[in-house]
Amino acid sequence: MSTREPHTGREPDGAAPHPGPLGHPGPLGDVLVTTPSFGQTSRAPWEVFEAAGAAARRSAFAHPLAEAQLRAEIRDMEALVVGLDPVTAAVLAAAPRLRVVAKHGVGTDNIDLDAARERGVRVVNAPGTNTGAVADLTFALLLAAARKIVPAHAAVTGGRWDRFFGPELGGRTLGVIGFGRIGQAVARRAHGFDMDVVAYDPHLPAEVFAAAGVRSVPFDELLAAADVVTLHMPLMSDRPLLGRRELTALRPGALVLNTARGGLVDEDALADLLHSGHLGGAGIDVFSTEPPVGNRLLEAPGVVLTPHCAAFSDQANRAMGTAVAADVVRVLRGEAPVNAVV
Ligand code: NAD
To answer: What is the dihedral of CA 312, 316, 318, 322, to 10 degrees?
Structure first.
């Protein structure tokens, strides 16, 4: 018998809400889904599992799960679909039947890839499925920070007719750090707004920048040239890429955008430089700790903050879910996944 759970998402394809936990093991294997956004705007991702005979169910715990909760729930699972939950070596060790971990998104910094490799567990993600969504939100943050839309809205709804000034984007320089899928999509949008774009990405050949009409520059040159800095690279270390030195090196009035990972920016230094007036504003979707309770950016002037929702377009939600579900099914069938990380 299937059990039902409340469905919170919209169904643009007109389908009935997904029943959620199926309550019985499928012949292909059991799949635990921890991220609440999986299959939220469309039931197509769930249908991939149903059609393949995999029994997918949502976690009983709120996302992101603590390590102990994950260990408790994963014990009999063949597959795991996660968001930002900590898939540590201890979690993997608690799941002897586990064959695949799927990241419902792109960044796999919350998954111990070495431990997965050692245990022969495949790791897959969904590159490219949320590129447009993240690039759109990055631009929404940029326009909102530049033209002070959040305080303007608050003024109007508060009965005040205050006026707000801010820079036009045309002719300004956007510095893109990490020129992969999302960085390039942001650059395309910036060109549409008549911005000059420079980029730093030490892993790409010159042709990639040339094809995009973007100048490739060394890191420090980008910091010195940019009116707006935007981050689109993975989190690789505990040391923030934009620390106090780098943020201080930015031009007076520069804007900082982060839709990549919170740990890439020294948040205290950013808050200090916003308070001092050296920086003109910031658009932030990701935080070193989420939710960002007590984070000084919450009180900093000129910020536009969103709850790690850059990937949450209707289209990306469907595309991310179906991509990871299809790869989970491939692994459970003994086939090679399309988007293998490990
Ligand atoms: P991608 O792999 O296509 O691009 C990442 C780029 O970063 C690559 O070109 C790589 O060469 C570059 N890079 C790696 N190390 C670098 C370094 N030290 N300095 C400069 N560049 C470096 O990935 P993508 O799809 O463009 O996603 C980029 C990042 O965005 C992801 O790693 C993820 O953390 C983040 N992301 C966030 C959200 C969100 O909801 N806010 C959603 C999707 C992705």
So the answer is: -120
Beta strands 79-82 and 173-177 are unpaired
Whole-number CA gyration radius for the chain: 21
Q: What is the mean pLDDT of residues 245-251?
A: 98
CATH class of the domain whose range is 29-129+313-332? alpha beta
Which residues form the pocket of ligand 1, taking CB atoms under 6 Å from any ligand atom? 105-107, 127, 130-131, 134, 177-183, 200-204, 232-234, 236, 259-261, 285-286, 308, 310-311
- Nearest residue (CA) to ligand 1, atom 39: 310
Say whether 278 is catalytic. no
Mean pLDDT computed over every residue of the chain: 93
Catalytic hit among 99, 261, 318, 330: 261
Probe target for ligand 1 pocket from 35, 103, 106, with the most ligand atoms within 8 Å of CB: 106
12 has pLDDT over 60: no
CATH of domain 131-305: 3.40.50.720
Is 221 catalytic? The answer is no
CA of 252 to the centre of ligand 1 (A): 26
Distance of CA 207 to the CA centre of its chain: 27
Choosing from 5, 168, 290, 299, the catalytic residue is 290
Q: How far is Cα 100 from Cα 104, in angstroms, rounded to an integer?
A: 13
Domain boundaries, the chain: 29-129+313-332, 131-305
Output the CA torsion sign for 259, 133, 88, 20: positive
Query: For residue range 93-131, what is the model confidence (pLDDT) as tens digits?
Result: 999 999 999 999 999 999 999 999 999 999 999 999 999
pTM comes to 0.90
Query: Which atom in ligand 1 lies closest to the alpha carbon of residue 311?
Result: 40
Check residue 40 and report its DSSP letter.
S
Q: How far, in Å, is the centroid of ligand 1 from the Cα of 231? A: 8
- Closest-CA residue, ligand 1 atom 36, reads 260
